[in-house]
Each structure stands twice: as structure tokens, then as C-alpha cells.
Design brief:
This protein is of the alpha+beta class and 106 residues long. The protein contains six helices and five strands; from the N terminus they run βααββαββααα.
Length: 106
Amino acid sequence: MPGQGRAVQRAFTPDERAGMSGSLPTLGETTFDIHLNANAFWRNVPAAVWHYKLGGYQVLKKWLSYREQSVLQRPSRPEEVQQFAEIARRIAAILMTTSSHSSSTE
């Protein structure tokens, strides 16, 4: 895990599960809270989104590794922190689109 961050796998809360509306088979039965540091984390990153790989690399984990303070020589900026959430949403959309496409062609 990059820097001081860590990924904590857990079950979805009842509210999170209700909000998934049928996407659990695609996005996974568990979720992660991804901690950037002791004070900041992203809650509810579905397992399939967290584990998504492109070119053999786990996309979100790799993105975080390039945002380590030791690499940037500065703290992360708010817009960089927001970008992580946007990337996670895009990955979820890719997974949902791919899943719906493959089920419609069967």
C-alpha cells in the first residue's frame, strides 16, 4: 500500500447495500475503505473497483503510489483527492457497462 495508506476490506452497510441496486454481482460482495493517511480516507470502494487492473496494474493503488508525499514532495491537493473518487466512479461505470454488455450478448 502506498505511503501510510491502507485498504480495509469490510461488508457493505445496509444503506450501502440498498444503494447498490443490483450491481453487487458485478462490483463485489465486499467493499473497501481506502485510507490516504490517519485523517483522510475514501469510504465504500467496491472490491471489483479496488482490484480493477489495467495493463497488469491495480489502477487505484498505482494512482495512490504516485501521490505519496515523498514522491510529490508536498501534501496531496484537494483536487487530487477528489480525482481518486472520480477515477473510482469511472472504473465502476466501465465494470457495469462491460457486465451489461456481456449479459446482453449471451
